[in-house]
Amino acid sequence: MTTERSLVLVKPDGVRRGLTGQVLARIEAKGYTLAALQILTPDRARLEQHYAEHEGKPFYEPLLEFMSSGPVCAVVVEGERCIEGFRALAGTTDPTAAAPGSIRGDLGRDWGSKVQQNIVHGSDSPESAAREIGIWFPGL
Ligand code: RTP
Ligand code: MG
Q1: How far apart are CA 11 and CA 69, in angstroms?
Q2: Helix or strand or coil: residue 39?
Q3: Residue 51 burial by Cβ neighbours in a 10 Å radius (0-12, 13-18, 19+)
Q4: What residues sit in the active site (predicted)?
Q5: For ligand 1, atom 27: residue with the closest CA
Q6: What's the 121 CA to ligand 2 centre distance in angstroms?
Q7: ipTM score here?
Q8: Which amino acids are annotated catalytic?
Q9: What is the pLDDT of residues 89-108, one digit of tens each?
Q10: pTM score, two decimals?
Q11: Element (DSSP H or E) covering residue 75
């Protein structure tokens, strides 16, 4: 089994609501390592790269607007099968439907906005993780 890296973001809603510490605590409690961490307000160019796969979808523009609305906490998480493991910790995309016990299920809900404000992002494959780590932590 090889150690993986995943790119995790605490999105602007999570940072604004003071949930960064809780998210990091859940990652550490699961046994994963925090390999790199920074807090920044992402510009549009970085978000266009990050969300390239969603360009043209109805939620794309509201998503970029939401994601640039304030600071995010970007983290490189490390551990065996941590890509799948963090996706399980996060819960399904829709925070209203996400299972209790997950980050989105315990801490998220609908707020009547045009985009799902679901607290966290986590890479969905080793290829995505490598690409996304390059976007948020160039040179790492
Ligand atoms: P993420 O990429 O953030 O980890 O989330 P995900 O894989 O569960 O969801 P994805 O399909 O990749 O969508 C990216 C993010 O776009 C927002 N979204 N809003 N219909 C909507 O309102 C809608 N659909 C997607 C969410 O913030 C989602 O996490
Ligand atoms: Mg995704």
Answers
A1: 10
A2: strand
A3: middle
A4: 121
A5: 116
A6: 7
A7: 0.92
A8: 121
A9: 999 999 999 999 999 999 99
A10: 0.96
A11: strand 72-80
Share of the chain above pLDDT 70, in %: 99
Atom of ligand 1 nearest to the CA of 117: 27
Q: Nearest 5°: phi and psi at 120?
A: -135, 160
Share of the chain residues as helix, strand and coil, in percent rounded to the nearest 5: 40, 20, 35
- Per-residue pLDDT tens digits for 23-37: 999 999 999 999 999
For residue 119, the ligand closest to its alpha carbon is 1
pLDDT in tens, 39-97: 999 999 999 999 999 999 999 999 999 999 999 999 999 999 999 999 999 999 999 99
Which helix (H) or strand (E) is 14 found in, with range? helix 12-16
Which domains does the chain carry?
3-118 (3.30.70.141)
Residue 25 in tokens: 């605590």
Q: Rounded to whole angstroms, what are the CA distances from 63 to 13, 29, 58?
A: 12, 30, 9
Residue 40 Cα to ligand 2 middle (Å): 20
Hey, is 34 helix, strand or coil? Answer: strand
